[in-house]
Design goal:
single chain; D-Maltodextrin-Binding Protein, domain 2; four-stranded mixed sheet; 18 helices
Length: about 425
């Protein structure tokens, strides 16, 4: 099926028309160098990207690289697309925004990029699963991932002799044990709605099919059927957190955990740099959220945190590929891992932060599943639905609304899926 450039609906209700022509790589007449601009969406990583930009430009005579790391980069990018002012390479997460860019036919098929051979298949598969309908080609180079589960105070666990749980029953028993010692087991920052997604995702990867959103789009199941246990177990965690789990935001929760106010924190590895700004000496480790009672079924909640895509209209693919080659050098990947405590998407003998000791085996074995919310339409604001659900506790009402809103905000995607399935019915 030949894809057509679709429209991307922006939060500001702007529409990108398929006929837009993007700028692409250009030659600087003054320097004689090919100018390549990379815009990446992680402002917290600005220091490492400034370093990488400097090193690239010092070692390349024919290409000049400019890297920007603005706040709210995704919105800025969409605005620039409307102005026909796209960069040459974008650095974004593996989520629904990436899905929309593919669907809009804006990204270059980089199947011929040899650097893809060095990327772990699990992360290539995660990216492929983000396509609304199956597409020919590859549209991103996964760079680094993160992991979400349970962070824990290693020194506190050692002091009290607590064991790492491998099943849901063991996890609840541990929370009860910690509580009996007069210590708060968990901390939450649920005042910021997005933090509600951290335990939700970590539980869902064990209890719901990895492709549940795709199944729902095909009409094969419902969230009411697949998410009930996820909702119930996410709610069950509240008994082991602060008295008012909605009183603290993300920064407050990170600070409280850093100060030893809880033994564990249900958040992702991305929080570790923030925690260490409060308590640089805190000994943190992590473990996979064991959401079921079969330890062999446990999976690490890990998704592509940063990946690079070349815009379709880039005029100098070779120069763009040279930038990707530079970013994928082992020493540059390691520099990023050291600063951001991330997980490499590239195969190789990389040194991971000690804060990931408890999940290394899952990374090495590829026992991972993507964040469920990477498939949720942003307009649906699932995080803002989970928060009031946790406040009120009405599972049925929450799941009914989830199903209703999914059909509302995904109707165009559902229609595309239906058309694709009809078109390819004879291939089954």
């Amino acid at each position: 099926m030949r894809r057509k450039r679709a429209a991307i609906v922006l939060g500001m209700s702007c529409i990108l028309m398929a006929s837009a022509v993007l700028q692409g790589c250009q030659q600087n007449p003054k320097s004689g160098k090919v100018e390549i601009e990379l815009v990446q969406y992680k402002p917290e990583a600005v220091d490492i990207f400034e370093q990488l930009e400097k090193e690239f430009n010092e070692t390349h005579d024919d290409i000049h690289l400019k890297i920007s790391s603005p706040n709210d980069a995704t919105t800025i990018l969409k605005t620039r697309f409307i102005r026909e002012d796209a960069p040459d390479i974008i650095g974004i997460g593996g989520d629904v925004n990436f899905s929309n860019f593919i669907d809009s036919d804006m990204l270059m098929d980089i199947s011929d990029y040899e650097g893809l051979d060095s990327i772990k298949q699990a992360y290539l598969d995660i990216d492929k699963a983000l396509e609304f309908v199956p597409e020919d080609g590859v549209y991103a180079v996964p760079y680094v991932a993160n992991a979400a589960g349970v962070l824990y105070n290693r020194a506190m666990f050692k002091e009290y002799g607590w064991e790492i749980p491998e099943t849901w029953d063991e996890f609840i028993a541990l929370c009860e044990q910690i509580q009996s010692e007069g210590i708060q087991p968990l901390y939450f920052g649920f005042k910021d709605t997005w933090t509600c997604l951290a335990p939700w995702n970590a539980i869902a990867v064990d209890l719901a099919p990895a492709d549940v959103c795709s199944q729902v789009n095909k009409g094969e199941t419902t969230f009411s059927d697949e998410y009930r246990e996820v909702a119930e177990k996410t709610q069950a965690l509240l008994a082991y957190g602060p008295k008012d789990p909605f009183a603290y935001d993300y920064n407050g929760a990170c600070t409280a955990f850093a100060n030893g106010e809880s033994a564990m924190y249900t958040i992702g590895s991305y929080a570790i740099p923030q925690i260490h700004t409060v308590n640089p000496d805190m000994d943190i480790d992590s473990f996979v959220m064991p959401a079921n009672n079969d330890a062999s079924e446990n999976k690490l909640n890990s998704g592509v945190d940063l990946q690079f895509s070349v815009m379709k209209d880039c005029e100098n693919k070779e120069a763009a590929y040279e930038v990707l080659n530079f970013l994928l050098k082992d020493e540059n990947v390691q520099s990023y891992l050291d600063e951001q405590k991330a997980v490499p998407c590239k195969e190789g003998d990389f040194e991971l932060a000690s804060t990931l000791d408890g999940v290394k085996s899952f990374i090495e074995e590829g026992r991972m599943a993507d964040y469920q919310d990477h498939y949720y339409p942003s307009e649906m604001s699932v995080d803002a639905q989970i928060q009031p659900f946790l406040m009120k506790g009405d599972v049925d009402a929450f799941l009914t609304k989830f199903d209703t809103d999914w059909k509302r905000y995904n109707r165009d995607i559902i229609r595309k899926v239906e058309d694709y399935e009809k078109e390819h019915a004879d291939e089954d």
